[in-house]
């Protein structure tokens, strides 16, 4: 639809539309784009420039020397940065996949629409509403080796709990962080998938049932394809969010023990705001931005190939 | 047949109870931590019964050197971020919804793409920039930087609300000779007022829950609640009931907003791309 689909009588004579009229939509978008460019482009360009210099605020306030690609080489070769990359990918992929599967299972139970289930559905969203940093504290309490609820539940089930606590052992710490994310975000998938599945017309399902299709077939061949677009979008959003996880790690483990729970977000925080190594953290930033952009671009390309907007 | 249905019904309810235990139980347990004495926090096995006390809340809200100012700071920052974002995002959403644009899909994806950048990575440049312009520790610095989250989110969500306003209404006004700005102000925006409120509410939650930006940009006097909870961690001897009490203050507003705007939760969380 355009600003001049229907002309008022006095506009029947050919008039040159004013600059404002011709570019109206762009002028309406411009303020937000300019604002965002100022907030995003400046930091990225600042980081790009800084990444070629040796610059550590603990050493001096200004960049000390141009070092070319040294920071990038140092970042890629650093064992802890590689660990952070690996952990982040594990968290993003395993976390998103688990949250989607569990969320779908919960959504299917909610769809049974028994009396009282809408209360469950309404309350279920609560974990997702809490600030990640607060969720960090919540689980720090639950995981406490001395009297945490999770520790107690595991011990009651005769499951081994490491002596140094769930968060204190390199073998369990990353799984513990993963569990926190799954706890907070599975409800998000459940609620969104439930709402989308609710919109699937009953007639189609009925017709399939009459054709003796199994529940599994109906789910895989009818329900999931129909909510494909929603699934694509929420998986992408969630993946991007986990990839940048920082708050929960800061509170729960500070990336430890060793490098077992180091994530990209935490790594950037530590290099930047604890060690003040501006040059190195800038190189790490660009590596992180490139990786997430490549992954999401590939994903968008393959997922949205056949989608209409 | 009958007994099978009963069995499935029972199974469904059992599953529902399990969901509540797993996803809501921990929250209640944490709420309880805020109203029990510090000594009973780590008893093994966990004690369900205890003498409730509001000592922790009194300590963080009434005693000298409390978190009460942080509660106010959180409100100032989150409300400020929402108000500043409206004049930027509402016109953009209107344009993206109502006009034919070259590259509309790319513009929409660009907004979304901004949410991919690691916020932590921006903190050092922001810190340097904000120190240069002399805004360090100010509310304004946090409100500005939070726009990287609130503008893209609001553009997407607002667009989905404006999309639902029937074009015929605007057509009719246009036939009567109304100009585009009259149509936007007098017709479209009043109709989508509920959408503006919903968008503002969820944007508020995003800003309220953010910890990364205040961590670097706030000063002692402008620290928000999440930073306050971190403060109890840094001091010697972790006082769990104080942490929990401060955390409860931080948890309550988002919870209330999500429960009140239950109808719009799906839409809010998916930036308007899923109607719900």
UniProtKB/TrEMBL annotation, chain A:
GO terms for biological process: transmembrane transport. The chain crosses the membrane at residues 26-48, 89-111, 123-143, 182-205, 226-243, 283-304. It is a multi-pass membrane protein. InterPro entries: MetI-like, MetI-like_sf. It is found in: Cell membrane. Keywords: Cell membrane, Membrane, Plasmid, Transmembrane, Transmembrane helix, Transport. Gene3D superfamilies: MetI-like. Residues 85-299 form the ABC transmembrane type-1 domain. GO terms for cellular component: plasma membrane. Pfam families: BPD_transp_1. PROSITE patterns: ABC_TM1. The keyword Iron does not apply. It comes from the Bacteria. SUPFAM superfamilies: MetI-like. Belongs to the binding-protein-dependent transport system permease family. This is ABC transporter permease protein. It comes from Rhizobium fredii.
From TrEMBL, chain B:
Residues 71-261 form the ABC transmembrane type-1 domain. Keywords: Cell membrane, Membrane, Plasmid, Transmembrane, Transmembrane helix, Transport. It is found in: Cell membrane. InterPro entries: BP-dep_ABC_trans_perm, MetI-like, MetI-like_sf. It comes from the Bacteria. Pfam families: BPD_transp_1 (PF00528). One of its GO terms (biological process) is transmembrane transport. SUPFAM superfamilies: MetI-like. GO terms for cellular component: plasma membrane. The keyword Ligase does not apply. CDD domains: TM_PBP2. Gene3D superfamilies: MetI-like (1.10.3720.10). The chain crosses the membrane at residues 12-35, 71-96, 108-127, 139-162, 183-208, 240-261. It is a multi-pass membrane protein. Coiled coil: none annotated. Belongs to the binding-protein-dependent transport system permease family. This is Sugar ABC transporter permease protein.
């Amino acid at each position: 639809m355009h600003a001049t689909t229907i002309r008022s009588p006095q506009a029947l004579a050919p008039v040159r539309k004013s600059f404002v009229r011709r570019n109206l939509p762009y002028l309406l978008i411009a303020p937000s784009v300019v604002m965002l460019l100022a907030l995003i482009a400046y930091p990225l360009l600042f980081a790009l420039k800084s990444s070629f210099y040796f610059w550590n605020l603990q050493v001096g306030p200004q960049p000390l020397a141009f070092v070319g690609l040294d920071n990038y080489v140092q970042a890629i070769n650093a064992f802890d940065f590689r660990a952070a990359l690996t952990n982040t990918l594990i968290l993003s992929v395993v976390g998103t996949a688990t949250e989607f599967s569990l969320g779908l299972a919960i959504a299917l139970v909610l769809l049974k629409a028994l009396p009282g289930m809408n209360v469950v559905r309404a309350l279920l969203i609560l974990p997702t509403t809490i600030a990640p940093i607060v969720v960090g504290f919540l689980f720090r309490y639950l995981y406490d080796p001395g009297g945490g609820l999770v520790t107690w539940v595991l011990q009651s089930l005769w499951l081994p709990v490491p002596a140094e606590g769930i968060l204190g052992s390199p073998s369990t710490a990353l799984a513990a962080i993963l569990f926190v994310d799954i706890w907070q975000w599975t409800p998000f998938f459940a609620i969104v998938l439930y709402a989308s599945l609710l919109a699937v017309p009953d007639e189609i399902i009925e017709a399939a049932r009459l054709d003796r299709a199994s529940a599994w077939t109906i789910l895989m061949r009818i329900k999931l394809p129909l909510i494909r677009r929603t699934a694509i979008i929420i998986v992408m959003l969630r993946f991007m969010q986990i990839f940048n996880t920082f708050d929960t790690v800061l509170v729960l483990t500070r990336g430890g023990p060793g490098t077992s729970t180091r994530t990209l977000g935490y790594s950037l925080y530590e290099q930047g705001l604890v060690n003040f190594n501006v040059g190195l953290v800038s190189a790490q930033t660009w590596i992180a931005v490139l990786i997430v952009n490549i992954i999401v671009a590939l994903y968008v390309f393959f997922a949205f190939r056949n989608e209409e907007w | 047949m009958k007994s099978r249905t009963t069995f499935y019904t029972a199974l469904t309810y059992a599953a529902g109870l399990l969901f509540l235990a797993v996803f809501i139980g921990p929250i209640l347990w944490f709420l309880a931590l805020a109203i029990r004495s510090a000594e009973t926090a780590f008893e093994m096995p966990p004690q369900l019964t205890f003498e409730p006390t509001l000592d922790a809340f009194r300590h963080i809200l009434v005693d000298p050197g409390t978190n009460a100012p942080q509660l106010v700071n959180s409100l100032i920052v989150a409300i400020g971020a929402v108000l500043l974002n409206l004049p930027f995002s509402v016109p953009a959403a209107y344009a993206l919804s109502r006009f034919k644009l070259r590259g509309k899909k790319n513009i929409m994806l660009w907004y979304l793409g901004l949410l991919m950048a690691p916020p932590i990575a921006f903190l050092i440049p922001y810190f340097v920039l904000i120190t240069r312009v002399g805004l360090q520790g100010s509310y304004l610095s946090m409100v500005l930087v939070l726009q990287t989250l609130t503008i893209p989110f609001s553009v997407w969500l607002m667009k989905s609300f404006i999309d639902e306003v029937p074009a015929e209404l605007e057509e009719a006004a246009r036939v009567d000779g109304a100009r585009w700005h009259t149509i936007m102000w007098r017709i479209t925006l009043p109709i989508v007022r509920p959408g503006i409120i919903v968008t503002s509410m969820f944007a508020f939650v995003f800003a309220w829950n953010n910890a990364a930006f205040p961590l670097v940009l706030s000063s002692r006097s402008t620290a928000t609640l999440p930073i306050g909870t971190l403060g109890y961690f840094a001091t010697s001897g972790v006082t769990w009931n104080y942490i929990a009490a401060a955390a409860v203050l931080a948890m309550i507003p988002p919870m209330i907003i999500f429960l009140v705007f239950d109808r719009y939760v799906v839409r809010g969380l998916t930036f308007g791309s899923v109607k719900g």
